[in-house]
Amino acid sequence: MEAEMREWCVALPKVELHAHLNGSVRDSTLLELAKQLGDRGVIVFEDVKDVIMKNGRSLPECFKLFDLFHILTTDHDTVTRITKEVVGDFAAENVVYLEIRTTPKNNEAKGMTKRSYMNAVLKGLKAVEDVDAVLFDSILRPDETLSRTPVGDLDGVTKKKKIYVRLLLSIDRRETTSAALDTVNLAMEMKDQGVVGIDLSGNPVVGEWETYLPALEHAKELGIPITIHCGEVPNRKEIQAVLDFCPQRLGHVCCLNDEEWKKLKSSMIPVEICLTSNVMTGGAPSLELHHFADLYNAKHPLSLCTDDSGLFSTSLSNEYYLVASTFSLSKAELFRLAQGAVEFAFVDDEVKKFLRAVFEHVARKGLMP
Ligand SMILES: [Zn+2]
């Protein structure tokens, strides 16, 4: 039963709205790149080797890997490589739409600007080979699009998997107001190159809301959709300010008090739920006690997401499986959850139409309940 359900969750077409590029790197790639850094004397390979090869890492071990990601992503070619692999990995488990978020990095010593970092990401998207990644500049052809989604596989026909990919630019909480504004302006500049939104993320105990607010307000004025990591720690003042700001989506929403829950529920702001991530980082006490159940029962708009699939040793299929096994959701309910996430994507209506058609096709053909 368990194996059958796991397989079903992999076959289910899925929409991923909260995935950080760096945290989604494969362990095998991480190991290889860490070894190279070790050989060059940049890091001590033995220090990180065991952490990389471990399944189910502790929070301090996760932070050790964060440091490694930071060093790795100062290199353009590495950024290109991991982008390419991350898209391939999501497509392999039948994710049909993926929003990757990443912080454009400025590193003068390494000859990296926010723009050159993003160019390396774009190069990675264009280099995807094993799957058909539909980027910003692709021309949509309805018949072809439908026949090359995971639906093709479910019909028993093996074709190249198709995945729509868009980008969110993250403002890191360590950044200054001016750096945050640069990121928003870059997002505007790259609107025609697949950037569809702005994210606020990073260490939740670092930085002040007031620092990023001018940049977030600027994004709002420019009409760029915004998602914010909210309530990872119980910061009453900031949670209140975020809810008042009313972004298009919220990530996590772990540490809310009764009044804030009420406010969130009446706002109907869609929430990106990251079960494994929240349990591993202590945002939720356990899977069973995760706030997914409360929001789901309240019919609050939700989408299941991985956050950092590499870092937390999970996958989007696994997150669906966890919801099924922990909260006893039926296949039909899981299907509706996946289907519903299309509506919260920051992508244009044209692409949403295709994504809706993918789910309708699967449902009509009886391939899914
Ligand atoms: Zn996140």
Automatic annotation (TrEMBL):
Q: Which UniProt keywords apply?
A: Hydrolase, Metal-binding, Nucleotide metabolism, Zinc
What cofactors does this protein use?
Answer: Zn(2+)
Q: Any idea where the Adenosine deaminase domain is?
A: 13-356
Entry-linked SUPFAM superfamilies: Metallo-dependent hydrolases
**Reactions performed catalytically:** N(6)-methyl-AMP + H2O + H(+) = IMP + methylamine
One GO term of the biological process aspect: adenosine catabolic process
Which GO MF terms are attached to this record?
Answer: adenosine deaminase activity; metal ion binding
Q: Describe the family membership recorded for this protein in Swiss-Prot or TrEMBL.
A: Belongs to the metallo-dependent hydrolases superfamily. Adenosine and AMP deaminases family.
| Protein name from the UniProt record | Adenosine deaminase domain-containing protein
What is the scientific name of the source organism? Brachypodium distachyon (Purple false brome)
